[in-house]
Each structure stands twice: as structure tokens, then as C-alpha cells.
Design goal:
The protein is α/β, with parallel strands linked by helices. It has 2 domains: 177 residues, no CATH class; 166 residues, Rossmann fold (3-Layer(aba) Sandwich), CATH 3.40.50. 31% of the residues lie in helices and 19% in strands. The protein is built from 12 helices and 14 strands. Strands 1, 2, 3, 4, 5, 6, 7, 8 and 9 form a 9-stranded mixed beta sheet that branches. A 5-stranded parallel beta sheet has the order 11-10-12-13-14, with helices on both faces. Strand 10, helix 5 and strand 11 form a beta-alpha-beta unit. Its main location: Golgi.
């Protein structure tokens, strides 16, 4: 166990991967092991959907499965089940741990992906090509017996959206991960500034829009207020089908990014150094959640972080409940009812209408924190 969230099995020798039955034969083993290659071991709901691999010694009464495909490089087994497909979980559960665990191979590693979703691989293929010189193998659906000299099943995990360099091979950091993303997606901007991309223009504000819950109810007014302050304003709404390269370039062009807490803020990985992230924290005592997901990782990513805390008067919850309802008067009592109750009350059913004077003050503060042109 490399943390309470991750387990890594690593072996060298005569190794044969029979992916369609999720079995790996290892000549040096003296007992059987079982593992799920997804970095969310503390979450039984997520792990329920992850395919288990069995690591077995060679059979004593028969020859091992014959190799049909020989590889001269190590194999690395990971899964994109669990909560992957949600951008935040794509990065915190899969991609950052994958980078942390495989950068040491300098591209000489064969990815063996369990539960492969073709659209998901296509979305992140530019990153995979930075980490491996070989095409990703759909290990559960091909009929090959892959023979490798070394196998790693499962990734290391340090912290949400982050890396602890002192614990990482080669001392890599989350800044190295961002640099790899820049190379993967051809992003040009390394640093933000008050003068925008050219250094002599307007700083760009990117508003992350949402369709369903946690929507900005006065998004156009927010954009107009920002434009009047001298920002070049863009509004964008990423979803599962968004072209990652195009959206990465848009985020990389921003100097300030603002959005309500949600997976879309994960695109902070594409912000240039010195950019400002403004996370709009919905009403309901959610600071612990918004802290671990985006506030805490921001500093290591060289992103300046700011909170915008929604007051009750800015929340649509005021229209859904009477003033004396527990959801409005005692959020922490709702928290004690468990995640499902919290999510239903404050994440699934809440939209926000920002106070424009307060929003302007926040933008002035953000502008002052940007590096000079």
C-alpha cells in the first residue's frame, strides 16, 4: 500500500499477462495476490466497478500460458473505471498517479489498460504519448498473452491532484506534470500577466459555465461587469465530449479563471504559472470539500488561489426552502446525515446569483495578484 488510497504490485522475471481473464502469471511468486489497479482504495463505491487482477505463481502441474506477444519493456497495468469520466477523478485518481508512477521509465513502458473506454483514451492520448512510446493496449479485450520482463500493477498516490517530490522517483513535482501537459497539448503560455497573452493587451478572464446544478444565474451580467473592468472575457462549458486539446488551449490563454465548485475547475492544470483561480464556494459549509479538491493543490501548481464564498442571499436555496429550514440554518447538521444528504442539498440543487459589487471587488483583488505585464 503506497497510501490508504493505492496499492502497487511490482515484479520482475518471467511474466505473462492474460488480460481477458485478468490473470498475471509471475514465475517468482510463491503465493497468489489480488489487486485492483485504481487509486481510490478508501472508496468502496468507486472500487466496486474496478476489475480485479489475480497475480499467480506459475502452475506446478502444467506449463504456463504460451507467449503470443513479447515486449522488451516493462508493462504497467491501470484501470479507467471507478469514477473516471468525471474530469476531476480522471486526474486525481488516474492521470496524476500514472505520471508519478511511470515518468521514471522515460517512455520505455507498455501501458496495459483495464476496462478501456475508447473515447477516454482518445481524449488523453496526447498525454499517454508523452509517457509511453507504445500504443495503449486494451488488455481485457485482446486475446494475446503479453510477456514482459517486469510488471507494475497499480499506481502510487500521494495526495489529491498533487505530488510530494521528496517521495517521488526523480523528485518530480506537479509542476513537471503541468509541463508534460503543456508539451502534450502544444500549449504556448508558460506564465500569466496583467497584460494578457501579449503582455501589452487585456488580461483574459475565463468563466467556467455549467448547464445543470451550480449554474451562474447572472452569467451575462458577470461577463459584462468584468469586461467593463478591462478584462477580455470568455465563457466556456466543458463536458465529457469537449475536445481536450482545444479546451486546454483556451484555459492556457486565461489569466484568471472563475467557476463554481465542480469538475470543470480541474482544468486549472492548463493555467499558466501566476494565473489566478477563483473558486466560487456554494452555500452550505463546503469549505472542507473545496479545500481538498482545488484550494490545496493550487499553490503547488503555481496558481494563485482565491475563494468566493456564496452567501445565502446569493443562493437559489433561498427560493426552495423556508427561512427556518435546517438546510439554510444548520448546514453542519445536514453534513452529519452523510454524503448523499450533503450532495442532494448543496451540490445537486443549488444555483448561484453572484452579488456584482462583491464580484467586482474579487476581480480587482485577482488583478492585483497577477504578475505585472
Amino acid at each position: 500500500m503506497t497510501s490508504k488510497r493505492s496499492e502497487r504490485c511490482e515484479a520482475a522475471g518471467d511474466i505473462r499477462v492474460v488480460g481477458n481473464v485478468s490473470t498475471i502469471y509471475i514465475d517468482s511468486l510463491d503465493r497468489e495476490w489480488r489487486t485492483k489497479p485504481y487509486a481510490r482504495y478508501h472508496d468502496p463505491v468507486a472500487m466496486t466497478h474496478v476489475r480485479e487482477f489475480v497475480l499467480k505463481p506459475f502452475p506446478s502441474d502444467a506449463p504456463p500460458p504460451a507467449c503470443t506477444k513479447n515486449h522488451s519493456v516493462p508493462g504497467f497495468v491501470f484501470s479507467n473505471r471507478g469514477f473516471s469520466g468525471n474530469l476531476y477523478h480522471d486526474y486525481t485518481d488516474v492521470l496524476v498517479p500514472l505520471f508519478l508512477s511511470t515518468r521514471r521509465f522515460n517512455g520505455e513502458v507498455q501501458f496495459l489498460l483495464s476496462d478501456l473506454k475508447p473515447w477516454w483514451v482518445a481524449k488523453f492520448r496526447p498525454l499517454f504519448r508523452q509517457l509511453s512510446r507504445y500504443e495503449v493496449v486494451d488488455v481485457n479485450n485482446d486475446l494475446e498473452v503479453h510477456c514482459v520482463p517486469r510488471i507494475v500493477v497499480g499506481s502510487d498516490f500521494h495526495k489529491d491532484m498533487g505530488i510530494v517530490p521528496s517521495k517521488a522517483a526523480g523528485g518530480v513535482s506537479i509542476v513537471d506534470f503541468k509541463r508534460t501537459l503543456r508539451d502534450a497539448f502544444g500549449l504556448e503560455r508558460a506564465a500569466a500577466s496583467r497584460g494578457g497573452a501579449t503582455g501589452a493587451g487585456k488580461p483574459r478572464l475565463l468563466i467556467i459555465s455549467r448547464k445543470n446544478s451550480r449554474r451562474f444565474l447572472n452569467e451575462r451580467e458577470m461577463a459584462a461587469a468584468a469586461a467593463a473592468m478591462g478584462f477580455d472575457v470568455r465563457i466556456a462549458e466543458p463536458d465529457q465530449h469537449t475536445d481536450m486539446s482545444t479546451f486546454a488551449r483556451l484555459v492556457n490563454s486565461a489569466d484568471v479563471m472563475v467557476g463554481v465548485h465542480g469538475a470543470g475547475l480541474t482544468n486549472m492544470v492548463f493555467l499558466p504559472a501566476g494565473a489566478v483561480l477563483i473558486q466560487v464556494v456554494p452555500f452550505g459549509g463546503l469549505e472542507w470539500l473545496t479545500g481538498v479538491t482545488f484550494k490545496n493543490p493550487a499553490a503547488d501548481m503555481e496558481v494563485t488561489y482565491m475563494d468566493y464564498n456564496v452567501q445565502l442571499e446569493e443562493s437559489s436555496l433561498l427560493e426552495q426552502y423556508p427561512r427556518n429550514h435546517q438546510v439554510l440554518t444548520d448546514p453542519y447538521a445536514v453534513h452529519k446525515q452523510g454524503w448523499d444528504a450533503l450532495k442532494a442539498a448543496y451540490l445537486d440543487k443549488q444555483n448561484v446569483r453572484l452579488d456584482l459589487d462583491k464580484f467586482r471587488a474579487t476581480l480587482r483583488d485577482a488583478l492585483s495578484r497577477l504578475p505585472p505585464a
